[in-house]
Design the sequence.
């Protein structure tokens, strides 16, 4: 299951990763929401939490 990573500037979903690696990794990209170049740590601290935890595993 893909995990959405949040932008450190606007806090919205910037990208998805298929898994969190064991080694330290950063993803640098242009946020599709705030259009800023951001560097996101690929770890659990950057994973965006679902506003509806009971729906997190559901696919429409």
Sequence:
């Amino acid at each position: 299951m893909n995990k959405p990573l949040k932008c450190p500037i606007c806090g919205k979903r910037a990208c998805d990763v298929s898994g969190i690696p064991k080694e330290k990794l950063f993803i640098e990209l242009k946020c599709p929401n705030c259009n800023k170049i951001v560097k996101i740590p690929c770890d659990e601290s950057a994973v965006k939490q679902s506003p509806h935890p009971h729906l997190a595993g559901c696919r429409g």
